[in-house]
Each structure stands twice: as C-alpha cells, then as structure tokens.
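# nightly structure sweep
# worker-07 picked up a monomer target from the shared queue
# config: single-sequence mode, recycle default, output format = structure tokens
# input follows
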Amino acid sequence: MSAAGESGRAQQNRARIQDLEQAAERATDPQERRQLKDKARQLKEQSEHTGGTGKRDIDPTM
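# output follows
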C-alpha cells in the first residue's frame, strides 16, 4: 500500500476512534458506554499493531 493510502487509513481510524469516544461520553446507558469505549480501545490497539499510527520504522532513503 502506498504511504498516502496508509496515512489516509490512519487518519480515518483516528477519526473513528474519536467518534466512538465522543459517543461513549454522550451515552446514558452504562452498558452502551462500555461497549463504545471497548470498540474505541480495540480499534486503537489494532491500529497500533498494524502500524496505523505512524510508529513504524521508515527507510529515510525511500
């Protein structure tokens, strides 16, 4: 995948995580709040494991 595609995906993931966290803040049902927070956490962990947060080693010669 191109660097631009990876950057776009990471940006989409961050936006989705933020949306889930905000929805959890607004949720009045404790179970719904917990589910939304869990989804946000899982997506954040998945992004970190796949390098979606830009933490990968990048060859500066490329």
